Amino acid sequence: MNTNSIIDSLNDAQRLAVSAPSQSMLILAGAGSGKTRVLVHRIAWQVQIEGLSIHNILAVTFTNKAAKEMRGRVEDLLDISAHSMWIGTFHGLAHRLLRRHAKQAKLPETFQVIDSDDQLRVIKRLVKSLNIDDSKWPPKQVMWFINAQKDEGIRARHMVESEDIYLRTMLQLYKAYEDICNRSGLVDFAELLLRAHELLRDNEDVLLFYQDRFKQVHVDEFQDTNTIQYAWLRLLTEGKDNLFVVGDDDQSIYGWRGAKIENLQNFQLHYPNHQFIKLEQNYRSTGNILKSANALIKKNEGRLGKELWTESGDGDLISLYTAFNEQDEAYFVVEKIRKWVNDGGLRQDIAILYRSNAQSRQFEEKLMTTGTPYRVYGGLRFFERMEIKNALAYLRVMSNHHDDASFERIINTPTRGVGAKTIDDIRLVAREKELSLWKAAIELINQNRLSARATNALKGFLDLVKQLEKEAEGSELYEKVKLIVEKSGLIELYKKEKGEKGEGRIENLEELVNAARSFDFDEGNDENLNELDMFLAHAALESGDMQGDDYEDCVQLMTLHSAKGLEFKLVFLVGLEDGLFPSQQSTNDITRLEEERRLCYVGITRAMEQLYITHAESRRLYGKETYPSPSRFLKDIPAEFIQEIRIRANVSRPVSSVKRNTSTIQVGTYKLGQRVSHVKFGEGVVLQMEGEGAQERVQINFHDVGLKWLMLSYAKLDVL
Fold this sequence. Notes:
- This protein has 720 residues and is α/β, with parallel strands linked by helices.
- Helix content is 44%, strand content 15%.
- The protein folds into five domains: 3-103 and 192-281, Rossmann fold (3-Layer(aba) Sandwich), CATH 3.40.50.300; 112-184, Arc Repressor Mutant, subunit A (Orthogonal Bundle), CATH 1.10.10; 318-379 and 550-645, 3-Layer(aba) Sandwich (Rossmann fold); 382-543, PCRA, domain 4 (Orthogonal Bundle); 675-719.
- Helix 2 (12-19) crosses helix 3 (35-48) and helix 16 runs antiparallel to helix 24.
């Protein structure tokens, strides 16, 4: 491969980024600017032109889907197998490090990775065992607290005892949770990252080995890194000046889960000799869409600064529709979808994007009514389904008897007569003697502390696991999975579920056997690990990946957070109202408001050809009727890029507070949806008008006092 074959297809900025001399680099890559292309071609350049081995390159991204795509494109470009190359997610690569160095990481070799669902189960059991009121201390809140500490590199032992009851209780639970995980050999997602960082930080020989091995380190979506992720990147590249990061501060939308937009600014301080390149040419969207996005995001302060542009022309204006309510909004969207399909368009090219999951219901109902196939993006993935997690739990207990979360999940699934009291007794012994649940169960049996019936039921479960282990010995991975599916009792359990649901669960279990049969054990495995443990880790890591599978020809419904990284020819950005988008919690916090604006920017830049933005005069959400103002983000988009749509010309429609280049029809003295102020009742929105002359009156929904009918001859209203 020569130089030209690597860079000829690139634009000037991309070519500069790919062919730059080896050094630390910050690539500010706008939406649709070809960042993955740059990363892949940079790797190819370093291998083919600079002579690096693929084993000397580390490439990190955030989703399994993105890692798989990157690996495939590297293989295609270099015409080699990249299976042994270190390309993967932060969690996947951290897991790989810990498997290779379990002893130095102070982990048992058989440690098990647990996903967020299993982590929550452990915490629920912990809260109950400590007699803590879960209504005051919800397990999910405890889980978020623990993970947030780990994301910042903080262990329970690092925290200072506090007089504050919240912090004191959370610290108590954090310590107890760490004890359970250490005793059972359990590693949650946040622990993977923290433990990998501690491994490198506390073992100089390990750190020096990987610093020497990885001559170049590449990071995708750098704006989404959290504190601990950036910390271990810095360790790997300390003194090497070899960190190549691609990111976009305008698409930093995960601050709520620990992502630090500050890492982009800090990179420039920590790597002062870095080269800074902007990728601003967009290959996705039309000019009007990009100009609108540029205008919106310019309202944010402290940006690194870039402006997207395209050679594909201006295209259509953005369409703005003001609906009466959420039903009208959904009706409008579905009608536009119907027209798109009738004109020959594909449903899979359409996305409905919303700020809150609660908004999807109206669209789902309208789509079902019209017989339009749709998919709610981000639904339960394969490895997250109950029946799959149950089967995997059997495999985990076979691999590691002391996996408490899995033990508790299957001890009475299917029902085998192990009652709640027996399980509570097992927990009590485990807590008092600091044993795993498996060992506690054996002790209860040996000491005859249970009734004969409970003893037989519990012994039957333990014997079943041992028998499955014996039969599985020496078998292929898929044969072990098939054994579990057929002899655990799960098939019989789901046969009792009537209808398609039970059949679907059985089909999923059969598919699990296929997944095991096709599992690529050799991919990234240079540690001679147990195949079953690798498969179980793969399942846990996959269940934590929020990217969806490839979809059929159906309309895509998703939150704006789920939409990042995707693109669609036709996009509906719905519910742009203050209090909904931006969210109510962000309106008085400039930092959160700017993240909401970045989220809106992400939504706009998902659209390739056509973009519809909708908002409603009234909306029932979370059981409450509201009369929201149009989103303040609409004011950030210049009028020349927007056309307002009027569906029923004989009815007055409310307009946004932004002046547009369209005319409106007015009934009576005021417009429906107009914002007014009354000297006594304060601010409100005009909902209805009736009568003429001296009898003319108006219904207004005032923010403070609710609905009022006022005679216009007496009411003194000021238009806002």
